[in-house]
Design a protein that fits this description.
elongated, Tetracycline Repressor, domain 2, 2 domains, Arc Repressor Mutant, subunit A, about 210 residues, mainly alpha
Length: about 210
């Protein structure tokens, strides 16, 4: 790829990222992207095949960033007690996805994907959501002292996962809990999620 071609491809990716995050896949047209990128309409087909190919490239960048959060938590938790693993996962998630300002466009893109799923939704589930959920199930099974197939495990993992969604930067969370804009409030929330989850999972042992 020539330097000029690479520059055009980068401009298309940058423009597509901004537009898909703002308006969603279905609303944005190839012409919109090319106009924003200062490129010929044919450039999308040349570099990405079609609009969906371009969307996949944008989505893949978001997926890599989100997938890295679960992997970082899993690596840090190796060899530790399940209580520590849970605390690490919650802390790492809030640190990376919220406190460090995980790129806002990622959350905007995911909200559009949830509201109007595209065929690319399977990528998000398989490479981001399922690995995180499976790790939560492993931790829950350890805490419950049972096999991952136990019905309680999935319910426990779902409860923790649901709590992690609240601090994600979105207009709903900020309306319900405006204090989440303060970093110290997020530290307190992380500690609460861990305490609340451990107490709940402990109660499920009976």
């Amino acid at each position: 790829m020539s330097g000029k071609d690479r520059e055009t491809r980068d401009r298309l990716l940058e423009a597509a990222t901004t537009l898909f995050a703002a308006d969603g896949f279905k609303t944005v047209t190839v012409r919109d992207i090319c106009q924003a990128a200062g490129a010929n309409v044919a450039a999308v087909n040349y570099h990405f095949g079609d609009k969906m190919g371009l969307y996949h490239d944008v989505l893949n960048e978001a997926i890599e960033k989100m997938h890295g959060t679960t992997e970082a938590a899993r690596d840090e938790g190796k060899g530790k007690a399940p209580e520590e693993k849970l605390e690490i996962l919650v802390r790492v998630f809030i640190d990376r996805a919220v406190k460090q300002g995980s790129a806002p466009w990622i959350h905007q893109l995911m909200m559009h994907e949830m509201a109007e799923p595209t065929p690319a939704l399977d990528l998000v589930v398989e490479r981001v959501l399922r690995p995180r959920f499976d790790y939560l199930k492993e931790i829950a099974a350890e805490l419950l002292g049972c096999d991952c197939a136990d019905a309680r495990v999935e319910k426990a993992a779902m409860s923790v996962q649901s709590q992690l969604m609240l601090p994600i930067k979105n207009p709903f969370a900020r309306q319900l809990m405006p204090e989440l804009s303060r970093e110290e409030a997020l530290d307190g929330l992380a500690a609460h999620v861990v305490r609340f989850s451990l107490a709940g999972i402990c109660a499920m042992r009976d």
